[in-house]
Every structure is written in structure tokens, then in C-alpha cells.
């Protein structure tokens, strides 16, 4: 009976969270800091400042590669910005899919704070531009600022959260790292320097990334609290992009619950400590408890 009640409660939370993201969200392409940037938002009064999320895409991806998740954030009241990094190959990106990474992904021992530093600079320059741009400067509450990143974008936002000390940005309230390339930080043991709560998301079919998140002394174990790890069943590396659909609803629910609690400061949704049906593992150490 208790199991039935728990699953009914989780199902209700799922439906409620999804319902709150159905609000219309506008998407526009703008130039900021000499970059192509996609912005998602709702139409609110200019007198009401909104929380902000900045998203960093994967290697050879682009700003719009995870549109489903950005629309969900915007539908929940965030102002969302996503720049095209110089390695972008879609959405107007100038790079080519044949371009090699500046540092081989298979040689994590040689990665350091200079590796893909241009991505950190992109985010820093974007923030400076937003703060002075007359279209956006009065719309944002910088006391409620979160970062999200996918794959190499996950590497980017973890670095900005303090995993590379020279990249560290002030004022970050939460870091959502979905299928993040965290291997260099695991190798160098720098995730203890994260300055904000972090949620890692992985998948049972995400063979190149997820093992580094969930293994003993992997990214989750090395990170300081508050920290969460969600692993989705049958999710491969593309699960967090618009190329895949299988786990979208649950990805949205956990991502929103995490950001709403730590960026907006809202009460924690029960789903942060409960497993949905397509979740194979959920771990957390935070003010909400300890799953271990």
C-alpha cells in the first residue's frame, strides 16, 4: 500500500511539473558580445525581474540543440540564454563537423584550465553584454542565476562553477550538468571546489560519460554537497538533445525541480528525492537528506 501511494505521489508531481511548463515561450535570435545567442522567455511585465539560466551546448552542437529543455525553463518563468560557441556546427555555427577538438577527449590527463578556455570567456562576455544591453538589463534578477550544460557544455559549466579555479564565476546558485564531460575534473580531483549545488544527469546507455559520473570516486562522489545524481534508464548521450524523445518528461521534471529549488529558492519538490519510473538510480546528499 505504501508503495502504491509513493508511486501515485510521484506521478502527480510529474503531471503537475509538466503542466507548469506548458506556458507559451518565445524564442529569438540576437547578437550579444559578438556571438549568435538564442533567448527564450515569456512575455512578462518589464517591472518584474526574472531568474536567469545560461546554457552551454555540446561540442559541435549549437545553442538550440536542447530546445525542449530550454522551452521548459522559459515556460517556468526563467529568462534563458544560449550562445553558439566557436565549435558550433548547427544553428548558424561556422565550425565543421570534421574539425578536431583542440585537446583530444581521450587524453584527459593533458586537459587543464586552458582547455576550451574560449567557452568560459564566451559565458563571461555574454554576462557582461546582458548586463548592459537595453533589451535585457532591467529584466533579470542576478540573485537567481543558474548554469546548465550538456556534454562539453557540462564541462564548461562545471569549470565556471569552480572546478577550474581561474574560470570561477561569482553568484551561481545552481549547476545542472547533463551527460557532462567531467573526466578532466575527475582526473585532477577539482570538483571539491564547486561553489554551488550541482545535479548530474546520466543514462544507462551513455557509455562514454555516465560511468565517470557514478563510479566510486567519480564526479558525484568527488563533488561537495549539495549534490544530486539522476540516471535515466535506456538514455544514451543524445537523450538531452532534440534528437531523442524517450526520457524528455522526466529530464524536464528533475531539471526544473532542481533549478526551482536552488535558483528560485522555492520549496523542494518531492521528486528531488524520489525515483520516477524511467530512473535507474537517484543519489543525493543535501539539506533534503542523504540517499546513501
Task: Produce the secondary structure layout.
Blueprint: H1 2-19, E1 26-32, E2 35-41, E3 50-56, H2 67-75, E4 79-83, H3 117-132, E5 140-150, H4 152-163, E6 174-178, H5 183-188, E7 198-203, H6 210-214, H7 219-222, E8 227-232, H8 248-264, E9 279-286, E10 289-290
Parallel strand pairs: 3-4, 3-5, 5-6, 6-7, 7-8
Antiparallel strand pairs: 1-2, 2-4, 8-9, 9-10
* Biggest β-sheet description: 10 strands, mixed
The CA-CA distance between the termini, in Å, is 24 Å
- Model regions low in confidence, pLDDT < 50 over at least 5 residues: 1-13
> Which bin fits the share of residues in helices?
25-40%
What is the tally of helical segments?
Answer: 8
Structural class by SSE content: alpha/beta
Kindly report the average pLDDT value: 92
Helix-strand sequence: HEEEHEHEHEHEHHEHEE
- The CATH superfamily appears as Alpha/Beta hydrolase fold, catalytic domain
- Give the overall shape, derived from the CA principal axes: globular
CATH domain class: Alpha Beta
Task: Kindly estimate the percentage of residues that lie in beta strands according to DSSP.
Answer: 15-25%
CATH architectural designation: 3-Layer(aba) Sandwich
- Main-sheet strand order equals 1-2-4-3-5-6-7-8-9-10
The CATH topology label is Rossmann fold
Compute the number of strand runs.
10
Instruction: Give the domain tally.
Output: 1
User: Over all CA atoms, what is the radius of gyration?
Assistant: 18 Å
